[in-house]
């Protein structure tokens, strides 16, 4: 299983792309969120991922920096199906509210001949809290993170050898996620900024975490590998160095602060 980070930034970044990523194995791809626009096509191109090979997509919630890139994926998929240039079917998973928004936008923004492929070749699938699907031959369980803002789902994927990957979305960990997050081999968690700069970026007012918060959490949950994303971009060239320096004071596992387009082998 390979992880490709397409974007690492929060909603307002200009020096990197919004947070989204792709998991891939054996020529299969699972994309999670799409960022804020058609920049998703640029990121996929520069990650050497053919968007036409993406058959499974998950959208965590309705915020613009996660959903608008998906609208572009819908357009490209339906447009190329119409032209006879897209083989097979594709599936987009999300909770009910997001699926309703995607359907409405597609029906109102696409040409009728393109929107006609919804539910025929491009399937919009509603998932419930605790529901599991098989994606890339792996069991993936979706869960409600009980956001205080827009309704949001995360997911947990069973990797080979008893390993587990858990994505907590882009808000702070909630105790309801413990059965998914505890003892995860990989935990993906947001870190809006350094704790030492909380007075500048005010993460708690936005219901976000700092690097210190995320690292203390991962330590308490017995997480083996922690990946931090959905950050500010004020000092993008020094972000990795500064976040690692702060995080290693509170977390003894393997800590990752990716740049856009970085890749890792997960198992």
List keywords for this structure.
267 residues, alpha/beta, seven-stranded mixed sheet, 8 helices, 14 strands, globular
How does this structure look, described?
By secondary structure, the protein is of the alpha/beta class. It is built from eight helices and 14 strands. The strands form two sheets. A seven-stranded mixed beta sheet has the order 6-5-4-3-2-1-14. A seven-stranded mixed beta sheet has the order 7-8-9-10-11-12-13, with helices on one face. It is globular, with a radius of gyration of 18 Å. The N and C termini lie close together (6 Å). The model has no long low-confidence stretch (mean pLDDT 97).
In short:
With 267 residues, this protein is an alpha/beta fold.
Largest sheet: 7 strands, mixed
User: How would you state the average pLDDT, rounded?
Assistant: 97
Low-confidence stretches: none
Q: Which percent bin holds the helix content? A: 25-40%
> Which structural class do the helices and strands define?
alpha/beta
Number of helices: 8
Distance between the amino and carboxyl termini: 6 Å
Spatial sequence of strands, sheet with the most strands: 6-5-4-3-2-1-14
Radius of gyration: 18 Å
The helix-strand sequence is: EEEHEHEHHEEEEEHEHHEHEE
State the shape: globular
Q: What's the number of extended β-strand segments?
A: 14
Strand content: 25-35%
């Amino acid at each position: 299983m390979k992880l490709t980070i397409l974007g690492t930034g929060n909603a307002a970044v200009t020096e990197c792309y919004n947070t989204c990523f792709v998991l891939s194995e054996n020529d299969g791809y699972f994309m999670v969120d799409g960022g804020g626009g058609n920049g998703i096509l640029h990121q996929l191109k520069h990650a050497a991922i053919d968007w036409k090979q993406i058959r499974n997509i998950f959208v965590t919630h309705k915020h613009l920096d996660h959903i608008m890139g998906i609208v572009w994926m819908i357009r490209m998929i339906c447009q190329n199906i119409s032209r006879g240039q897209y083989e097979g079917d594709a599936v987009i998973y999300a909770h009910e509210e997001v699926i309703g928004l995607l359907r409405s936008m597609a029906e109102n923004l696409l040409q009728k001949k393109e929107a006609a492929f919804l539910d025929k070749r491009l399937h919009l699938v509603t998932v419930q809290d605790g529901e599991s699907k098989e994606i890339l031959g792996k069991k993936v369980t979706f869960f409600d993170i009980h956001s205080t803002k827009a309704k949001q789902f995360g997911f947990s994927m069973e990797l080979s050898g008893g390993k587990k990957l858990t994505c907590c979305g882009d808000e702070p960990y909630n105790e309801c996620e413990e059965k998914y997050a505890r003892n995860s081999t990989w935990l993906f968690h947001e870190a809006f900024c350094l704790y030492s700069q909380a007075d500048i970026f005010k993460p708690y007012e936005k219901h976000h975490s700092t690097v210190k918060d995320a690292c203390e959490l991962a330590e308490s949950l017995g997480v083996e590998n922690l990946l931090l994303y959905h950050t500010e971009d004020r000092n993008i060239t020094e972000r990795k160095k500064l976040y690692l320096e702060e995080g290693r004071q509170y977390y003894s596992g393997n800590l990752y602060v990716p740049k856009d387009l970085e890749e890792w082998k997960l198992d």
